[in-house]
Structure formats: structure tokens, C-alpha cells
């Protein structure tokens, strides 16, 4: 499972070391040599578990599908987003601006909130 591309549909065989990786960043993290570029690529479909080769120098729209199961493997990648984000200037100086989306905050009160207005009137 790739931690860089969450919806990877194929694994790619590296032409330099002949190992399977989901993306180039996975190869960079696990191997000590640079990734060799090649136009003739070998893919393994994650849906039907069958391998196929594609010439990427002559890539067309019909080549975006697995030839065995028609799984569309050229799709927009979903990458992980950080759970913490900074809403202020510098979090090292003032950490009050750190917001963690995993923690449910208390309900905010507002003069425009209908429920609060009904409590005050009734």
C-alpha cells in the first residue's frame, strides 16, 4: 500500500532493480540508487492481479485501461493531507492558532444562532 498515492490502481516494475513499486517516491525511499527512466513500462493491475506492458512514448487514451479487466488506472491521484494546519503567522511563537481537525471543539455561540435567540426570547 502506497502512502503517497492513496488510490493507486497499478504497481510499476522498476527497470533498474526489477522490483515493484506503487510510485516513484516509494522507490526513492526504499532503494539507494536513482530510478532509471524507460519508455517501455511493465504494470501490474491491482484489480485483476495481471501484468501488462505499455510503451509510454506512444501513449493514447485507450491505453489508460487494463487490457485484461478494463480497470481505468490513469486517474487523478489522491494524496494524503495533513491533519494539523496552521491558521496564524508562526506556530512556534504562538501555538493558539494550531487547529486539529480530529478534535471536536465546543459549540460556538453567536448572535446569529437561531437556537440561542429562541432561548433568550422564551
From TrEMBL:
Cited SUPFAM superfamilies: CHY zinc finger-like (SSF161219)
Biological-process GO terms, alphabetical: protein import into mitochondrial intermembrane space
GO molecular function list: zinc ion binding
PANTHER family: CHY-TYPE DOMAIN-CONTAINING PROTEIN, ZINC FINGER PROTEIN
Source species, domain of life: Eukaryota
Designated name of the protein: CHY-type domain-containing protein
Stretches assigned to the CHY-type domain: 1-71
Pfam families cross-referenced by the UniProt entry: zf-CHY
GO terms under cellular component: mitochondrial intermembrane space
UniProt keyword terms in alphabetical order: Metal-binding, Zinc, Zinc-finger
Organism: Byssochlamys spectabilis
Amino acid at each position: 500500500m502506497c502512502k503517497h498515492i492513496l488510490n493507486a490502481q497499478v504497481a510499476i516494475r522498476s527497470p533498474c532493480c526489477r522490483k515493484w513499486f506503487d510510485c516513484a517516491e516509494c522507490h526513492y525511499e526504499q532503494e539507494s540508487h536513482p530510478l532509471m527512466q524507460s519508455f517501455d513500462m511493465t504494470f501490474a493491475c491491482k484489480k485483476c492481479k495481471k501484468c501488462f506492458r505499455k510503451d509510454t512514448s506512444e501513449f493514447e487514451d485507450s491505453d489508460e485501461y487494463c487490457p485484461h479487466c478494463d480497470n481505468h488506472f490513469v486517474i487523478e491521484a489522491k494524496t494524503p493531507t495533513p491533519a494539523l494546519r496552521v491558521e496564524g503567522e508562526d506556530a512556534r511563537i504562538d501555538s493558539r492558532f494550531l487547529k486539529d481537525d480530529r478534535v471536536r471543539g465546543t459549540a460556538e455561540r453567536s448572535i446569529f444562532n437561531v437556537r440561542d435567540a429562541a432561548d433568550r426570547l422564551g
